[in-house]
Amino acid sequence: MRTTWNGSLSFGLVSIPVGLAPATKPAARQSDVSFRLLHRECLTPIKQKRWCPTHDREVGPDELVRGWEASKGQFVIVEDEELEALERHDDSRSIEISRFVPVDEVDPIWLDRTYFLVPGQPAAQRRPYKLLLEAMRSSGTGAVGRFVRSGRESLCLVRARGEGLVLETLYLAEDVYSQAEIDEAMEATDVKEAELGLAQQLVEGLTRPFDPAELASDYRRDLRALLEAKFRGEEIVQPEPEPAAAPVIDLMEALKASVAAAKGRESKPKKPAAARTPAKTRRRATKA
Q1: First CA to last CA across the chain, in angstroms?
Q2: 285: left (phi over 0), alpha (psi -120 to 50) or beta
Q3: What are 14-32's pLDDT values in tens digits?
Q4: Dihedral sign, CA of 159, 163, 164, 166?
């Protein structure tokens, strides 16, 4: 597995050699299809220019400087050297663990990006890795710490996953919005026992084991199929929109209808993915 950072995982007097490898693809947060802006007339990719409206001309890289807008139209200039001075030039290449916490107490809202912690190749280096993995898994804990990469400090959570360790970078406390307003609104809202019973029945009817293979994007599949069809010269015929169901105003009626629909879906055989197409296509007629 290709690593992008190599160092060690340290706590107390223990130091475990590890490497950091991305667990998700670069395009995981967006569609796997990227677009470029073209001039419609000649289909030439356009170029972005850095333009100064005051001097009415394009400016080069050596004329640019970073500025923080303190107030409307008032900027504080920051030089690259000043930013570099603030970065931590840590040569230890160590993930410093400060404490262990119950891993189920870490809400997923704090998790940013996931990386695999790759153990060292020699067997002697894999043994302490295995010991830490088993200790955290048996105790249900995760390790909170920090490390420096490319001069930037990141907070992290190390946890057990299967037969390995993963590192999750964490958001800072000030980066996550408070949900106190939602909590306050929900505390003042009551539900009826009959409604709760139907809601639980609906949840139970839709409950099944988690299967990562089902994490597929219809949009991504449909977009790829559309682009491939257009590339082959097929004419795209958009399907007729399905009529929207009339909204159910009564909550009890909506819950009853949802439970019935869930039972109906369970009794129907699943349609193969290949049979579901976003739009009909037909080959363009070519002149002889």
Answers
A1: 54
A2: beta
A3: 889 999 999 988 765 555 7
A4: negative
